[in-house]
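During the no-cost extension, the postdoctoral fellow (Dr. R.K.) reprocessed legacy sequence entries with the updated structure-token encoder. One reprocessed record is reproduced below for audit purposes.
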Amino acid sequence: MATVGVLLPVGLTGLLIPVYSMPVVNMPMTETTSRDLFPGALEMMILESLRRQPAHGYALVQHIQQRSKNLLQVEEGSLYPALQRLLKAKLVRAEWGLSSTNRRVRTYQITAAGLRHLEQQISAFDRMFEGITLVLNPGRS
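Re-encoded structure tokens follow.
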């Protein structure tokens, strides 16, 4: 199985491991160091990036990498399937154009439905993160 996805740091070692954008079945944690961040994480980061401004694929990769201070590395093998899922769900739209170097690029833009979906996802993520924090830091509640 090819490794695709987002890379996240593990512990304090600075080691980066791949994180899949979709759930991975039949991969017990004892067999591999690869793990899923959570379903929809990549899509949420793409939508947040597009909320700021329309962008083509490479610009999205660069934006996510820069905003995460190089902790997240989005691979093309995960980015473009995620963009296709967002297009199919009508959460983004795309049009072909020319880049500043006269190369043909597909520029993506978030839709009104995409904005609503992003807000719902951020809210759900905040609740999930709060719950995880309560479990990991029981004395701080």
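Residues 35-140 form a domain with the Arc Repressor Mutant, subunit A fold (CATH 1.10.10.10). Residues 1-35 have pLDDT under 50 and may be disordered. The remaining legacy entries will be reprocessed before the final report is submitted.
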